[in-house]
Each structure stands twice: as C-alpha cells, then as structure tokens.
Amino acid sequence: MNGTKPAVRPARPQFSSGPCAKRPGWSLENLSAACLGRSHRSRLGKARLREAIDRTRALLKVPDDYRIGIVPASDTGAVELAMWSMLGARPVDMFAWESFGAGWVTDAVKQLGLEAHIYDAPYGEISNLSAIDRAHDVVFTWNGTTSGVRVPDANWISAKRKGIVICDATSAVFAQPLDWPKLDVVTYSWQKVLGGEGAHGMLILSPRAVKRLETYTPPRPLPKLFRLTKGGKLNESIFEGATINTPSMLCVEDYLDTLKWAESIGGLETLHARADANVAMITAWVEKTPWVDFLCADPALRSNTSVCLKLVDADIIALDEASQRSFVKKMAALLEAEEAAYDIGGYRDAPPGLRIWCGATVEASDIEALGPWLDWSFEAAKASL
Ligand SMILES: Cc1ncc(COP(=O)(O)O)c(C=O)c1O
Prior knowledge:
Blueprint (H helix, E strand, L loop, with lengths): L42 H18 L6 E6 L1 H13 L5 E5 L2 H13 L4 E5 L16 E5 L1 E2 L4 E2 L14 E4 L16 E5 L10 E6 L1 H9 L13 E2 L2 E2 L14 H16 L3 H20 L4 E3 L11 E6 L2 H4 L3 H17 L15 E5 L6 H20 L2
Parallel strand pairs: 2-3, 2-4, 4-7, 7-8
Antiparallel strand pairs: 1-9, 5-6, 8-9, 10-11, 12-13, 13-14
Helix pairs in contact: 1-5, 6-9, 8-9
Bound molecules: pyridoxal-5'-phosphate (PLP).
C-alpha cells in the first residue's frame, strides 16, 4: 500500500445492515401506483396488502397452512407481539449469541418474568443448540445480525416438539433457506434483505402457533397492537390484509416493488445465490488481507448477509477497546467522505470491527470494489494513529 486511492469506487456505497441497500434499479417513480390518500381498508388498499401477503407466500415458499400477516413496529413489533401473546404456557429456551437475541432474553426474563432457560454464547460463537428441550417453547434469532453468526440449519429442533418455536429471521429470510416445518413463528421486516422500508413487521404463523393463540390466554394485559384473536379465535382478517392499524401504503408499494424484482431475477434461489456470491467475494478478500478476519471462525456458521469482521493487526489489537472503536470510526468516516462505503462500522454492542451487508440487493461487483477501499482506509487510519 502506498496511500493511493483505488481507481474504482463501488457504484453503490450502501453496505448498511439495515435499512439495507435498495434493489438494483430502484426508483421512487416505480412506486407511482401506490394506493395513496385512500383508506387502507378500501377495496384497492386491501388488495395491495393482500398482494403483498400472496407474493410473500409464493416467493418464500411458505406452506399453504401457515398464516402471513403484516403487523406494526417492524421486526421488533412482530417478535414482541408473538412473545407477549404466546409465551408463558411452558418454560422457554432462549438461544442468544448477539445483541438482538439478548434483547429477546431481556423481554422474556425482565418484562415477561417467564421461566426461561438461557443459552448464550460470546460474539462470534453460537449457543449450545443441542441443549434444546422439546417440551419447552423456544426463541432464537436465525441470523445474528450483530455478530454475523447464523444457525447452520434447523435440524436441532425436533419435529415432535411440544412447545412452539419463535424465530426472528429478519436478517436471514430471502438469503438463507428456512426450514418451515420446524418453525412456528417467523418474523422479519421489509428493510433488510429486500431493501424495503422499516416500520412494518411480517408475522408468519404455523398451525401450531395458531392453536397456541386459540387455546392459551396469557396472564398479562395485551395492547390492541398485539391482539390476534377475537372471542378466542384467530382474527383471520389480519392475515388477509386487514391490518391491526394503519400501514404506510407507500411502504407497501415499495415492498411489492422489491418482491416483483425478486421474482423477475429468478426468485428465492437467485436471492440466496446473490448473497452467497457476495460473501464469497468478501471471503476472497479476507483471505488475502492480513489485517482482518471473520468474527465467526466457523465457515458453516458464517452469515451471508451481515458479515462481521474483526481487526487482527498486531498494532491495532494492542490498543484498548475504546481506541480500537475510534480506529474503526476513523476508517468508516474516511470511507464515507470518499463515498466509497457507508455505515460499515460494527454494531455498538459488538466487539470493535466492521460489518458489511451482503444481502441480495448488493451487487458482487460493489463488494469486489470495496476491498481495496477497506485496505486504503485501514492504511490511512493507521498512518494517523
Ligand atoms: C436480528 C434482528 N432482530 C431485530 C431487529 C430489529 O429490527 P427492526 O428495527 O426492524 O424492529 C434487527 C435489526 O437490525 C435484527 O437484525
């Protein structure tokens, strides 16, 4: 390295892990058919919401007997809605290996006061999944966005389980194959792998989850935003597009736009392949770069969306944690000023490092162009130490 800036910049420097890059070719003009200034309960509004549900089912290959609903408050809203409405019937196994999973543990223990069995693990590693008890309910995050560690599969979940399994899949869905029969509640938001907008959550329920809702009354008040049943029966209309409260029809249109894009490029397999190709590009760069390594040592557990990297240069790891964080901030600021990469600093609760989104809306050519810029920013930040 001689401090020279690389010749090629990523065409789209958006590498944030949420909201994530819009799809290639995205334009506000593509949303001109949005049902604006009309009731979301009008025939037109409901049809758009219903279309979002139907296209989701087709693209994700969600089983026919699973319900799909659009709920408030993004992925957090969907997870908490499920936890508040369903948990307490059995003890719950909480698997958490980074900050979002840890947030669900806080919910279970401090807010809901559940009998919770907590299986955690340090950043870069995964919980002891074999500790699962088939008589318990389960909450876990399929892809830990802040550590870049994902479950390899759902084989550790029994098909004969008695409890229900709640899976926060927000940074996994559309990028990694989900094993639907093993999952009773799956949640995500639109702002991740498909580069949609925040604020709306997707809640997908298995027949077993519906049964729990219809047979169990949780010992706690439920706000209207969390109520999925009416007179002891599932409120089916929510899963046909009659949302609990008012959604943004502009965000709905944006989600539809990105679903159609996903269909047009070949569907789910292509989305998975794009994320895999992006992470392969990063891997090639990491392998030839001495100052950086994956936070997740095991390739089988490594995310293909939220790729988390640690700095392993001897001079940097000799610094205290606060100085390492400042170093990463400096790199990120240099890259932002050059419009080469935005938002690539690791999550605030994670060990100091970089996080680069590799989901399907990111182009492999941009990941390829990013490597030399990361090298440049590392050298430049080091020169200013
Ligand atoms: C695994 C995981 N869970 C939950 C959230 C919170 O999502 P939202 O802001 O959509 O509620 C995120 C956001 O990054 C996440 O990565």
